[in-house]
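Entry 12.
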Amino acid sequence: MLAIKVVAVGMVALTLAAICSALRFRLRYHWSNGISAGIGADMADLAVLIGRLLIALLFALGALQKTAAPEAAGDLLIGMGLPYGLVWVALVYNAFAAGALIVGYCVRPVAASLAAYCALTSVFHYLPEDPWQMSIFVKNWAIAGGCLVLAAHGPGRYVFLGTRFRTAG
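Predicted 3D structure (tokens):
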């Protein structure tokens, strides 16, 4: 549990640092048939980075939770008639996907697979009589939407692989 708190605090600190950095950038104004405010390229790339890190945080914490207390997820799987061992597959997948999003590696396919993962796992939480489970159900679909946007637009300019990643299209 302490490890989860340490990672959460670290990711929050990183996100706050990125937001503070974003505040240094000014909005760029375009003049065409009136005034419309547009976000500069640096600001947009920074927003993609922050979004990528926040989504990664969710899956990193999911992996840590499965490490610390695999019984919760395992019982859910068993209740659906699935083998308990899928907890370990989900743990490895969550950890890999979070790491890939953090460093910017294969962001498009990883984000697309995370969207499918969220859609699939939402089935476990479709319990209309339990408001808490229904909120998790809806949250999974919202995360799937964010992952699809990330899959469509790629990692942005800021990646942690030592070079700038150029996205197609």
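Annotation: The chain is about 70% helix and 5% strand. The longest strand covers residues 28-31.
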